Hints:
By secondary structure, this protein is an alpha+beta fold.
Amino acid sequence: MLAVKEKFKGACLDTGAQHTVIRKPQAEAYRASIRQEADLETEKELRSYRLGGCTFDTLGAVSIRLPIAEDFFVPLFVNVTAWNVPFLLGLDIMDRYRMYVNKVTNHLVCVNEGVAEPVVRKYGHIYLDWGSDILYTFSELQRIHKYFYHAKPVRLYSLMRRYKVKEATPGTLRQLEKVAEACDLCQRLAE
Length: 191
């Protein structure tokens, strides 16, 4: 008999959850959606959470990239539990990044970045749904930019596309242009 794998459902925006957690099958589905085959990362001290009068221990943690805009995401380190819950985006992350859910316009608003990402209503809750595209962080693109001796964004992007780097999307080119604009050395040499 074949085991049925879950499909990653996105983040449930639960303003009643204090902490951000994900259950193990959803963590595995997320990792499969980004084509990452690795075990859960274990912390030195496993945490315990209370839900509905019961205490649950964490099984480990998973690194998740939460998209906030088309070309920006928030890297998260989320505890994995055995609860029968989806990926709950709790108040700890929403407060840290100054996010809130606008239930009238159906958007997740990030005040820090000045963006609003559309949300969907499914399973009786509000979800932030996203595809399986992997985006680079700004610091990762800065390292790549410096590693290739401050290459121009178009040249670096074409190199990434030539080697079929699956993370190289049109948004990556825009981010590379922002990296070059922020690079002090590139600005001095451009003058």
